[in-house]
Amino acid sequence: ADRRALLASFDKFRRDLDGSGMMEGLDAFNEQAFGILTSSKLLNALDLEKEDAKVRHRYGKGDPKNRDDGGPKLMEHMLIARRLVEAGARCVTLAFSRWDHHGDNFGALRQDLPLFDQGVSALVEDLHQRGLDQDVSLVVWGEFGRTPTINKDAGRDHWPRVSCALLAGGGMKTGQVIGATDRLGGEATERPVQFGDVFATLYHNLGIDVSKVTVNDLSGRPQYLVDAGCQPMKELI
């Protein structure tokens, strides 16, 4: 109740100035969000004491110490992601550690990658064992790549030219590498994939045709889900 009152006080001055009707559209989303946060299904999904001890051990514990402003490095969050899906969540977003290694790139990755590999592999295995691999799509992705050269601080800076992603589940044809870069990982040399193609593939897994479906924004205008020309990756579907 206190949070609802606080939100209402924040929104009041915006509502008075709103001439587009966007605030009315937000009301429905707010109600949906409050319903989710107070759901008994959510509370049960977060209770890992109800999970098999062997499964919890397979995920591991991780490291409770955050790296600067990065996300928690706790394996149980990946397990909770699976439990949330089983409870009915349609989309789960998980942040793990901090990957912006402008310095000490190799030292940081030696700490984080083994944990990350254990958690992600346990999640993929878990999805298959529970028969969720046909319905649940998993994507591991960052917002851009890293420079192919090492800077003076033993780090790698931002690099928009090329990056990588890992996809699993969703009934996709996995177990393959799509595309290639030069030997330094600086430029795409084979089968370049745009980020819109990845999104189109994920939408395809949900049964959504990105060439036809539009979604109205908060002001009522129809918007396509991806840019023109982006299509599901034929190698995966």
Summarize the structure.
This protein has 237 residues and is α+β, with helices and mostly antiparallel strands. The protein contains seven helices and ten strands. It is 39% helix and 12% strand.
Describe the protein's architecture and organization.
The protein folds into two domains: 23-192, no CATH class; 193-237, no CATH class. Helix 3 (40-46) packs antiparallel against helix 5 and helix 5 packs parallel to helix 6. Helices cover 39% and strands 12% of the residues. A two-stranded antiparallel sheet has the order 1-2. The chain is globular. The protein has helices spanning 2-17, 22-37, 40-46, 53-59, 76-86, 105-129, 195-205, and strands at residues 62-63, 73-74, 137-141, 145-146, 158-159, 165-169, 180-181, 188-190, 214-216, 222-224. It has 237 residues and is an alpha+beta fold. The termini are far apart. The longest helix is centred in the middle third of the chain and has 25 residues, at 105-129.
Structural class, from helix and strand content?
A: alpha+beta
Number of domains: 2
Low-confidence stretches: none
Beta-strand percentage range = 5-15%
Largest sheet geometry: 2 strands, antiparallel
Fraction in helix: 25-40%
How are the strands ordered across the major sheet? 1-2
Q: Give the count of helical stretches.
A: 7
Rg over alpha carbons: 21 Å
User: Terminal Cα separation, in Å?
Assistant: 46 Å
| Shape category | globular
Average predicted local confidence, pLDDT:
90
Order of helices and strands: HHHHEEHHEEEEEEHEE
* Beta strands, count: 10
